[in-house]
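Let's practice the habit of predicting before peeking. Look at the sequence and jot down your guess about where helices and strands might fall. Then scroll down.
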Amino acid sequence: MGLKQADHARLKNFLDGIKAKTDNFLGYPVSKDFDYKDLFEFLKYPLNNLGDPFTPSTWKVDTREFEREVITFMARLFRAKEDDYWGYVTNGGSEGNLYGLYLARELYPKGIVYYSQDTHYSVSKNLHLLNLRHIMIRSQPNGEIDYEDLHETIKINRDKPAIIFANIGTTMTEAKDDLLKINALLDQLVICDRYIHSDAALCGGLAPFITPRAAFDFKDGCDSISVSGHKSFGSPIPCGILVARKQNVARIARSIAYIGSLDTTITGSRNGVTPLFLWYMIKKLGMEGLKKRVVSALEMAEYTETSLQQAGVDAWRNPNAITIVFPEVAEAVKEKWQLATADGKTHLICMPNVRKDQIDQFLGDLKKVM
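Done guessing? Here is the structure:
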């Protein structure tokens, strides 16, 4: 039995539409310059990374050996200690953020989570799921956390452990919270019981290759990092990578006889295909290839910002950011180029796949309605 001709036609029409829509999005941080056709054969098999990536399991149809290599690569990229890191490939950045907050809660059940008003919308949901006490901190105009407000708020609650949710690239402006400033602030207040999670959904794949390097990783004092795999790296299936201190994860691990492995992840069955995508990307590009993509994206961001300003648009971006922010544009332009807008601001993100001809076409459409 097979599909009817009408169903084949429907799929063909849908494919044509997806191709056009993919070429015309500039407002969301998703890379599309990937080619995984060498891995298509693996789609014939039920790849399931059940259980902990670093412990054996009775289930063998998995890609956990590749997942471990991905985690090791990311741990080194984020300057984790060689003997104190653990991680796994998640369904996306939001799951990684949930895991970081989960670890923090297990370490400090009476802790208070501090996060800025520019934090991703999923975090408030995660805080609700974990029933964590939390306080929102003001943001600076560029989207970075207001360190003075953070200092004064923690000062009032200095008898409680501090759990900091740091943004390493906010959703709308790509602002980065500075972990060195945050740790200095906590030192000043003599807060010994602390946990810092870095939400590096977009910038985790960018910041390690940019000079000066942002203060966001383990060497700068974080306890866990979440990064998206489908954003700066590139994957046809949404995914992410969570890296945390191994000693903290050991506190929540429990053995499951049914699978012959440890239960250390959020989900039980986990996607076995996405670790292959990420491994393939790392091996194909290497450090030099990844850096080249970042440099190209930054150059395109500079071109876009300058071109918008020359056209009379009040455009700006944070230092070393690939996100350009400008006043809200006409609905027709937003619809065509799938531009995200909030609070009267629209942004355009120069992912590594963005081309100059796309930017020029976008500018032409914008000028027509200005």
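How did you do? DSSP finds ten helices and twelve strands in the chain.
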